[in-house]
Write a sequence for this structure.
């Protein structure tokens, strides 16, 4: 689960940076790539938990607690089979948070909490331990059902947003003096032009600096 949480956090930071830089095209492409990576990681974790659930549990409970080991292995199998929904949930929630949409992620967290508690009580009374184990996957699915349409709407809105034009900042060579012992001699560092997106904030900054330039005052 920590791997899926890390992917969601990475997507959130990526989306926020590109949203501020005026690159909706990168957001759309990056979220789709993050979703595919999350589904792939979820399937891999699910296969590990389903096939190696019992040996993993016995590493902690030993061979003398067969009942406890069987129950824990059953939980790993059920949760592992539904990890794809959890992976999509983390990525889409992080993407919406990076876009500044805080309401839907908050609502899904509340829904997830309510569904987990309600399913544990209702299904636990009806099916016992198995019903309680299914409370987690049902909460993930319930939250994903809300998140998927919300992000699809945001994804379509991003397609209509303009892409910020690139700004090339020219740089010059910077002379560097090497160490006196002669172990390494550096004549110069030649920097390359850096392409930056032209955002409204950067355009305003250029105007302010141009007004303060001494050549304009003359």
């Amino acid at each position: 689960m920590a791997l899926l949480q890390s992917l969601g956090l990475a997507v959130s930071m990526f989306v926020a940076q590109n949203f501020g830089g005026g690159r909706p095209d990168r957001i759309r492409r990056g979220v789709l790539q993050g979703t595919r990576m999350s589904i792939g990681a979820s399937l891999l974790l699910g296969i590990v938990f389903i096939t190696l659930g019992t040996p993993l549990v016995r590493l902690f409970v030993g061979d003398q607690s067969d009942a406890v080991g069987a129950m824990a292995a059953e939980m790993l199998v059920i949760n592992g089979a539904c990890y794809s929904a959890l992976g999509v949930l983390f990525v889409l929630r992080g993407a919406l948070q990076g876009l500044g949409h805080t309401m839907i992620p908050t609502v899904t967290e509340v829904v997830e909490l309510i569904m987990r508690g309600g399913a544990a009580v209702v299904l636990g009374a009806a099916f016992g331990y198995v019903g309680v184990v299914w409370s987690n996957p049902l909460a993930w699915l319930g939250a994903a059902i809300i998140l998927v349409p919300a992000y699809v709407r945001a994804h379509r809105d991003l397609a209509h947003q303009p892409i910020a034009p690139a700004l090339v900042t020219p740089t010059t060579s910077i002379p560097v003096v090497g160490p006196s012992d002669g172990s390494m001699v550096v004549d110069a560092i030649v920097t390359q032009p850096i392409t930056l997106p032209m955002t409204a904030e950067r355009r305003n900054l250029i105007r302010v600096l141009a007004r303060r330039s001494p050549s304009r005052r003359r």
Summary: The radius of gyration is 26 Å.
